[in-house]
Structures are given as structure tokens and as C-alpha cells.
Amino acid sequence: MKIFVKQKTYITPHLLRITFKGNALAEFPADAQGGYIKLLFESDHRAKPEMRTYTIRHIDHQQQTIEVDFVAHGDQGLASRWAQTCTIGSALEIRGPGPRKLANPQADWYFFIGDLSSLPAINVNLEHLQENAVGYVMIVVDNDSDIHPVNTPKGVVVEWIKTSNNAENRAKTVMDTVAKKNWLNGDCAVWLAGEFTMVKHLKTYFRDHRKIEKQNAYYSSYWKQGLTEPDHKKEKQTVMLSDA
Ligand SMILES: Cc1cc2nc3c(=O)[nH]c(=O)nc-3n(C[C@H](O)[C@H](O)[C@H](O)COP(=O)(O)OP(=O)(O)OC[C@H]3O[C@@H](n4cnc5c(N)ncnc54)[C@H](O)[C@@H]3O)c2cc1C
Q: Are 66 and 119 members of one domain?
């Protein structure tokens, strides 16, 4: 299935929204928003294109368009480089979509933690919460310039955590901030995705210390500092930080 760039808009200096158009998008399921897709990128070094995983931030079946928010993290990554340099009309192969992961709607309150890569999926989650939902959203950024408004129900408080771009330091800063949060009453649904090291530490905290039950937890490593997606995928399978 081919999709074509219709529009490019920088939401912040490191978050780039691309609107794609393609006939096949009309056939995507009604609940595709928040689902993941695989995009195929040509590489100079390999005969076959390489896949990268992204989230459908919005879908418009009638217009046959989707919006995808790319972290513009420089020219090291195939996808990041492509997103930054593509022009209107540039084409990509797309596979999917896979199912979206929504926090358990039966929970009493919510704890979302992520970074710019998982913010699209967090935003879709926030759009599905009841108006009277309560909880926390923590988003980790390396730069103040990436802080921007996020829509939540009134009772869900958004906090931006600025950290250094070192994986261990980032994980430690987030861990300290999370541990200081006032733990609310009732069942908490945790939704956590982002850099591998941060997800690994926080998963252990929520599972072992906060005793979050399986039906109330979603933990997924979305990328790992220093590894390309294919190598990260191998590593996360060994420590069970998969998307399941
Ligand atoms: C279910 C799922 C949904 C996802 N949805 C999104 C999404 O909507 N938007 C999005 O931007 N990402 C999303 N990701 C993460 C994205 O797949 C990875 O970041 C991917 O590695 C990007 O590919 P790349 O070609 O740019 O970099 P790669 O070639 O994979 O990696 C090259 C280098 O860039 C570094 N790198 C990779 N990602 C980042 C990053 N986010 N910040 C800083 N450095 C990075 C790597 O550590 C490596 O050193 C999702 C991942 C999963 C599993």
C-alpha cells in the first residue's frame, strides 16, 4: 500500500506532523486511530527497505488521510531523516494497522508516562478518557522548546520532565519524579512507553512496588538509545518489553 505526503507541520522543533494521503487508508478499521503502522524506508546499505514503527495520530477515512507525528531526532535514523527531508508528494509503503493500546477504562485513575515518541499514542488515550477521569501524564523531553499544550480532562494533570539525553540519567530523573507523586486511592491504570532504559526501570517499580495488576498495565519500549529499530526489537524481546 502506498501513501503520499500531503502536508508537513512542525508541532515543536523536534516533533513533525506529516499528513499522508492514500486510497488504501479508506479501508483501515474505524478504530485505527492510535494503532501502529509499519513504514518502509529505502536504505543506502541494504538491498531491502527497512521497517520503522509509528502511531496513527489521526485518521480521516473520508479524506483518505492519516497524520503521523515523527520525532525529528536528527539524521542518524532512516525514518527521522526521511521525515525531515521529504517533500509534498513523497511516497512510502505502509503496512498495518496493528491494534491500539488503550488504558483500562475500568480503572479509578490513570498514570501515563512517555516521551515524544509515545506522545501520539498518549494523546489518543487521553481523547478516550471520561470527562471526570483523574490522574497524571508525564512527558519526558530533552529540550524546553518541545513543551507544548496537551488536551486532557480537567482532573488529569500534565507534567513535562526535562532531562539530559543520557538514557540512565533520564531514567533516574523520571523514576525520582514518579516516586514522589502522591499515590491516589483505588485502582491505577499505568500506561508507559518510550526509551528502553526508562521503561525497564519504571516497569519494575510499578509491577513490584506499586503491585499494578496485568489488566491495568501497558509497558512498551519504543526505542533504545544507540540502537536502530531492528536491533532494539531483538533486545526488547529478551527482556519482555514488547508491545503486547
Ligand atoms: C508501537 C510503537 C509506536 C511508535 N510510534 C511512534 C510515533 O508515533 N512517533 C515516533 O517518532 N516514534 C514512534 N515509535 C518509535 C520509533 O519506531 C523509533 O524511534 C524508531 O527507532 C525511529 O526510527 P529511525 O529510523 O528514525 O531511527 P533508527 O534508525 O531506528 O535509530 C537510529 C538512531 O536514532 C536513535 N533514535 C531512535 N528513535 C529516537 C527517538 N525517538 N529520539 C531520539 N533518538 C532516537 C536510536 O537510538 C539510534 O541511535 C514507535 C515505536 C513503537 C514500538
A: no
What separation in Å is there between the alpha carbon of 221 and the centre of ligand 1? 10
Distance CA 225, CA 197 (A): 8
* CB burial of residue 74 (10 Å; 0-12, 13-18, 19+): exposed
Same domain, 92 and 120: no
Nearest CA to ligand 1 atom 6: 54
Q: What domain range includes position 12? A: 2-98
Task: Say if CB 33 and CB 57 are below 8 A apart.
Answer: yes
Q: Which atom of ligand 1 is nearest to the CA of 70?
A: 11
Residues 67 and 113 in one domain: no
Which residues line the pocket of ligand 1, CB cutoff 6 A?
A: 36, 52-55, 69-71, 73, 76-80, 117, 120, 222-229, 243
List % helix, strand, coil for the chain (3-state, nearest 5): 25, 35, 40
Ligand 1 mean position, distance from CA 74 (Å): 11
Q: What is the mean pLDDT of each run of 10 residues along the chain (244 residues)?
A: 98 98 96 98 86 98 98 96 98 97 97 98 98 98 97 98 92 96 97 97 96 96 97 86 50
Q: 177 and 89: one domain?
A: no
Q: Which atom of ligand 1 is nearest to the CA of 98?
A: 1
Provide the domain count of the chain: 2
Q: What per-residue confidence (pLDDT) applies to 244?
A: 40
124 and 231 share one domain: yes
Residue to mutate (ligand 1; options 10, 38, 53, 163; most atoms within 8 A of CB): 53
